[in-house]
Specification:
It contains one helix and eleven strands. The chain is globular.
């Protein structure tokens, strides 16, 4: 009986190993001198490339910074983007606009202590605009998507004095102006 169990176990291990090796196309580790770095958002494109974004704490600094990279279909970095604003930053999400550009939503802690939220529009070569999102100060943004009309939808929560506690919200943003509907 023990031999049958061992043979069956070996068979399943071999089968599982074959499944894993065929299902995994590639694995990449990106060496960086950052003290802390995490990828938190991922957006595949129809051409096999994909956008990936997250947050990075440089080893020589004390401010977390949001970042976005375009990777080819093998996982090789094609272009890196960082947002040139001071203050602690966190990436909230990514959305693909109808014209093929990427919409990134991120937050930063301003010197005044207010959390400001931004929408950036970029493509594979450059950042076209970074706009502050109207009426979203001190909001904690959780997720981003683009609707069928090309409007960026953002959800999160924001504390209000009444009623007690935090309230969730959803806002629609014009990606090129930062204006909310």
């Amino acid at each position: 009986m023990r031999i049958k169990i061992k043979v069956l176990f070996a068979f399943f291990c071999l089968l599982f190993q074959n499944f894993i090796s065929e299902a995994q196309d590639f694995t990449r580790f990106y060496a960086d001198s950052a003290e802390l770095q995490s990828a938190t958002r991922f957006l595949p494109l129809a051409n096999g490339k994909f956008w990936i974004g997250g947050n990075r704490l440089p080893s020589s600094g004390d401010e977390l910074k949001a970042w976005v990279c375009l990777l080819d279909n093998s996982g090789i970095i094609q272009k890196r983007f960082r947002f040139n604003l001071s203050g602690y930053q966190t990436l909230a999400g990514l959305g693909l606009l109808h014209d093929g550009r990427l919409s990134c939503v991120f937050s930063r802690k301003a010197l005044s202590g207010i959390t400001e939220n931004y929408v950036a529009t970029l493509d594979s070569q450059q950042i076209f605009s970074v706009q502050r999102i109207a009426d979203a100060d001190n909001a904690n943004l959780d997720d981003v998507m683009v609707d069928s009309y090309g409007i960026v939808l953002v959800c999160g929560f924001k504390g209000f004095p009444d009623p007690e506690g935090n309230n969730f919200f959803v806002t629609r943003i014009q990606p090129r102006t930062g204006a909310s509907d």
